[in-house]
């Protein structure tokens, strides 16, 4: 059976539980057609690049499919009929991507960066500690810091 990736967008005023129900409904259509859905990722409520049907945000859902073409067409037909689905896109793939998608990986790294920033805010020291760290970093690079030169001239 061929492999597919499907992404669909759901209106922002729909609760997350109903988005999950829609995902199950579409997965059931694939399974009834003789296919399987090995991975489903809910990317959450995200801002759209441009307005779609007067909406600025949408719930994004990614589904990996291993299904016959007829089952995929039936799922797409149901998506186009459903009023809560803003857009959908299905792409045929050579092989399915294992592990988290790129969006989920970048979401995790963004959370890590936020945590680092919060730690940095709490650990900021006095001005003299910051200037000494500048001197240390400039010595490592082989560039002299103007502040350290002017201090040496004053003595």
Oligomer: single chain
Share of β-strand residues: 25-35%
Instruction: Please give the CATH architecture of the domain at 3-94.
Output: 2-Layer Sandwich
Query: Which segments are poorly predicted (pLDDT under 50) over 5 or more consecutive residues?
Result: 131-144
Question: Could you state the order of secondary-structure elements as H and E?
Answer: EHEEHEHHH
The tally of strands reads: 4
Query: Largest beta sheet, briefly?
Result: 4 strands, antiparallel
The averaged pLDDT comes out at 79
The coarse overall form would be globular
CATH superfamily label of the domain at 3-94: Ribosomal protein S6/Translation elongation factor EF1B
CATH top level label of the domain at 3-94: Alpha Beta
Radius of gyration: 26 Å
Helix content: 40-55%
Our count of helices gives 5
Note the gap between the termini.
Answer: 79 Å
Structure description:
The chain is α+β, with helices and mostly antiparallel strands. It has a domain at 3-94: 2-Layer Sandwich (Alpha-Beta Plaits). Helix content is 48%, strand content 30%. Strands 2-3-1-4 form a 4-stranded antiparallel β-sheet, covered by helices on one side. β2 (36-52) and β3 (55-66) form a beta hairpin. α1 (16-32) packs antiparallel against α2 (69-81). The radius of gyration is 26 Å and the shape is globular. Mean pLDDT is 79; it is low at 131-144.
């Amino acid at each position: 059976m061929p492999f597919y990736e499907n992404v669909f967008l759901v209106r922002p005023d729909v609760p997350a539980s109903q988005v999950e129900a829609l995902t199950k409904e579409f997965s059931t259509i694939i399974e009834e057609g003789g296919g399987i859905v090995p991975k489903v990722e809910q990317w959450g409520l995200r801002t759209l690049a441009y307005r779609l049907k007067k909406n600025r945000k949408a719930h994004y859902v990614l589904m990996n499919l291993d299904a016959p073409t007829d089952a995929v067409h039936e799922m797409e037909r149901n998506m186009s009929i459903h009023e809560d689905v803003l857009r959908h896109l299905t792409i045929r793939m050579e092989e399915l991507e294992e592990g988290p998608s790129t969006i989920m990986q970048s979401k995790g790294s963004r959370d890590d960066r936020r945590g680092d920033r919060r730690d940095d805010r709490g650990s900021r020291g006095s001005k003299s500690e910051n200037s000494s760290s500048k001197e240390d970093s400039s010595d490592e690079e082989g560039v002299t810091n103007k502040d350290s030169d002017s201090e040496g001239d004053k003595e």
